[in-house]
């Protein structure tokens, strides 16, 4: 009888151990997937607010919620991830000629985030913008 109880307890503990291991592996996998996912973004700023007034100028730029917002030379607004895909340096927009540059290793991106000069090889995440009066909405591509 004792032998059966001992074997039963061993079996139960083994099952608990496997369940915990499975849960650990499963949640680890989910974390990796979440890390790779493009974060959902949807916010609106008022360009009349002092923090954002530079965005009314051609070539104006601002890092907001880790997104580089800028107005190109034609007056269009753009929004891309604010950090270089190579080594995460903060990006800057150059209005003339029109490109995004990384000051760390001088890679360049188009105003839509495509890489034109390495060492970066991965495009920036692009977000959509809609201007309604002085309210600029920035949101994820669905
Ligand atoms: S971190 Fe951007 S090019 Fe080096």
Short description:
By secondary structure, this protein is of the alpha+beta class. The chain is built from one helix and ten strands, in the order αββββββββββ.
Keywords:
single chain; 142 residues; alpha+beta; Rieske Iron-sulfur Protein; 2 domains; 6-stranded antiparallel beta sheet; 4-stranded antiparallel beta sheet; 10 strands; globular; binds FE2/S2 (inorganic) cluster
Layout: helices, strands, pairs:
Layout: H1 2-36, E1 42-46, E2 61-64, E3 67-71, E4 77-81, E5 92-94, E6 99-101, E7 108-109, E8 115-117, E9 126-132, E10 135-140
Antiparallel strand pairs: 1-10, 2-3, 3-4, 4-9, 5-6, 6-7, 7-8, 9-10
FE2/S2 (inorganic) cluster is lined by residues 84, 86-87, 89, 102, 104-105, 107, 119-120.
Q: What's the CATH architecture of the largest domain? A: 3-layer Sandwich
Number of helices: 1
Could you tell me the CATH topology label of the largest domain: Rieske Iron-sulfur Protein
- Determine the strand fraction and express it as a percent band: 25-35%
Q: CATH superfamily of the largest domain, please? A: Rieske [2Fe-2S] iron-sulphur domain
In terms of structural class, how would the helical and strand content be classed?
A: alpha+beta
| Poorly predicted ranges | 18-35
Question: How far from one another are the termini?
Answer: 62 Å
**Coarse shape:** globular
CATH C-level class of the largest domain: Mainly Beta
């Amino acid at each position: 009888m004792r032998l059966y109880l001992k074997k039963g307890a061993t079996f139960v503990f083994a099952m608990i151990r496997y369940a915990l291991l499975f849960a650990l592996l499963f949640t680890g996998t989910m974390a990796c997937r979440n890390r790779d996912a493009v974060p959902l973004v949807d916010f609106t700023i008022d360009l009349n607010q002092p923090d954002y007034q530079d965005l009314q100028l051609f070539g104006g730029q601002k890092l907001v919620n880790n997104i580089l917002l800028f107005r190109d030379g034609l007056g269009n607004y753009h929004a891309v991830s604010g950090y270089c895909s190579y080594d995460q340096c903060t990006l800057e927009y150059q209005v003339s000629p029109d490109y995004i540059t990384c000051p760390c290793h001088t890679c360049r991106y188009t105003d839509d985030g495509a890489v034109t000069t390495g060492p970066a090889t991965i495009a920036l995440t692009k977000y959509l913008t809609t201007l309604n009066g002085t309210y600029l909405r920035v949101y994820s591509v669905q």
